[in-house]
Specification:
The protein is about 35% helix and about 20% strand. It is α+β, with helices and mostly antiparallel strands and about 575 residues long.
Length: about 575
């Protein structure tokens, strides 16, 4: 969800509750566009994190202390000079704008009481943190915006501060019923878009939410609806506005198959079918949401080189495999050449010199067939030529049969590595995958031949019945949990016929309940290439029946007897043990 005006209102409410009238204790600037302000209030210490990052602007309270550079940037030094030990006297938000103004009072060099304001603008790539004096004049900002960059507003020391009015939008906190209806009806666009483009601080998600609450199609235009539907939409809008004014915030994160997809300061009824986790504060929700999102994004970025490498290897092996299959199919002609040679040897004594073919009875199929001949060669030479072709194709088939098996194993191995990249959540997981590629000869180790220390661990879950379940993130971990952690009477699970993780249920020499089998099956489905399918077939068997063939690729096992179940990949209700 966008960091919209409703989220800012929720943050404002929390900040008023916790840091209003607090004292500025410490100011640091961990990154070029970030501030971390430590505030003491009512015997407690709070850290206010502010980011004007173009890609991820944020405001929230955090308990995490980020390291600062050895030499503080100029903007940080300026804030320390003016605001150290200053008192926060007000926190405000103009309308439902994505702007938060923190007003502070402090003593200047002469001992006089002065006021300053720190204005945080959360506006995507235009985000900024602006420091102003009591008269609204800009002292400095974390980003300088000159007229060469923006023709709408300069953000430079000495310039007056004002909120740019780049769009004609209404304030949703003060709009009347008539103004609401006129604004919606005036726009010939889908209803949800008409909502969020008409009012400040509303995101596309809120536009969709209002349509959902009003049971209206968000893709239809307002002009295609009757007026009673517009009035009903306004009633839902009024209900949402009341929640904001009365500060009835309910921070949540919405998860889909364990992945965070949205956060919100208010309940989002449109996601009632997904997993919703509530939090005590909007800061906590934001920190969890963006930490998880950033982790996934960062790992995706760091694994991009590995993905490209494995994808190239997969394409190369796939082409090689297809070519080998085609060549293997061509060797099926060998039996025909053998028959030709035998028939020439049997019937060639009465052939006319220079004949280009002859018909003979094929005693293998009881048919009359035509045997082609080279008219320049005598019959026995023709027979010899066909026997040589037969022998060559026979040798080719024997060699290709072995090569096809090896190439198929290589393809399966590479597909399992590619799948493991989707399960990596830490850099140490990527180290283990890179090590597997290096040991398999697919790439060279970075920094020489020395093997890197592996600290990556398998996923660890506990079933609803209390049984410990382990999931390998990659082929090495699959082997570790299957052949080192598991005992013979533990249970082993794997998605049938597709790359994925091994799952081990520690049975404690007991027969686990059916619920535990189902949960382990869901884990095997989720951590497999088939996780997007509605249902995934899972093989499961006691560990003692799982064997590793001699010389097999990492993670490759065989089993000759098993049970099966077909199940979904929803693991949202399975408890994960975080180490």
């Amino acid at each position: 969800m966008a960091f919209d005006g409703i989220t800012i209102a929720s943050i404002k409410s929390q900040l008023e509750e916790r840091i209003l009238m607090g004292r500025i204790y410490k100011i640091s600037q961990p990154e070029q566009d970030e501030l971390l302000i430590t505030i003491k209030n009512q015997g407690k210490q709070y850290r206010l994190f502010l980011s004007a990052s173009a890609s991820l602007p944020l405001i929230y309270l955090t308990e995490v202390n980020k390291p600062s550079p050895l030499t503080a940037p100029g903007f940080c030094m300026l804030l320390r000079k003016h605001l150290q030990n200053g008192k926060i006297i007000s926190i405000s938000q103009p309308g439902l704008e994505r702007i938060l103004t923190i007003e502070m009072e402090h003593l200047n060099e002469l001992g006089d009481l002065c006021t300053k304001t720190l204005i945080v603008e959360i506006m995507g790539k235009h985000s900024n943190i602006i420091f102003c004096n009591g008269e609204g004049q800009i002292i400095d900002s974390i980003k300088h915006i000159s007229c060469a960059v923006s023709s709408v507003r300069e953000v430079l020391p000495g310039r007056p501060y004002f909120i740019p009015k780049t769009q004609e939008k209404l304030d949703p906190l003060t709009v009347t019923k008539e103004m609401f209806c006129q604004a919606i009806l005036a726009k010939p666009v889908p209803l949800s878009k008409a909502i969020y483009t008409s009012f400040t601080g509303l995101s596309p998600v809120i536009g969709e939410e209002l349509c959902y609450r009003a049971s209206l199609d968000s893709n239809q235009t307002a002009k295609s609806m009757d007026f009673s539907s517009i009035l009903h939409l306004y009633d839902c809008f009024e209900g949402l506005r009341k929640e904001i004014i009365e500060k009835k915030f309910f921070p949540v994160i919405i998860y889909e198959k364990g992945v965070p997809v949205e956060f919100s300061s208010l309940p989002l009824k449109q996601y009632k079918d997904l997993d919703i986790v509530s939090y005590t504060s909007i800061s906590e929700a934001l920190e969890v949401y963006y930490t998880e999102k950033n982790t996934l994004t960062r790992i995706r970025q760091k694994s991009s080189d590995l993905r490209k490498r494995v994808q190239t290897l997969l394409e190369r092996s796939g082409k090689k495999y297809d070519l080998q299959l085609k060549q293997l199919k061509d060797t099926e002609k060998k039996e025909k050449y053998k028959v030709y040679g035998e028939l020439i040897t049997t019937y060639g004594y009465n052939l006319s010199p220079g004949a280009s073919s002859f018909q003979a009875h094929n005693y293998y199929t009881d048919e009359i067939i035509t045997v082609p001949l080279d008219p320049k060669l005598p019959p026995l030479e023709n027979a010899k030529k066909y026997f040589e072709k037969y022998s060559k194709l026979k040798r080719t088939k024997e060699a290709l049969t072995k090569l096809v098996i090896e190439t198929k194993e290589e393809l399966n191995h590479l597909q399992s590595i590619f799948a493991a990249l989707d399960f990596a959540i830490h850099e140490s997981d990527l180290v283990q995958i890179r090590e597997e590629l290096a040991q398999s000869g697919y790439m060279k180790r970075k920094g020489g031949k020395e093997k890197k220390k592996i600290i990556s661990k398998p996923f660890h879950y506990i079933s609803s019945d209390g049984y410990h379940m382990y999931v390998g993130k990659n082929n090495y971990q699959n082997e570790e949990i299957t052949f080192q952690m598991a005992t013979g009477n533990d249970w082993w699970f794997h998605a049938k016929g597709c790359p994925g993780s091994h799952v081990i249920v520690k049975a404690n020499n007991e027969e686990p309940p059916i619920e535990t089998f189902e949960e382990a099956g869901r884990l095997a489905a989720y951590y497999s290439k088939g996780r997007e399918q509605e249902k995934v077939e899972i093989d499961y068997v006691q560990r003692k029946h799982v064997k590793k063939p001699k010389g097999g690729k990492p993670g490759f096992v065989v089993y000759y007897t098993n049970y099966s179940l077909t199940i979904d990949s929803d693991i949202s209700n399975i408890k994960e043990v975080l180490s």
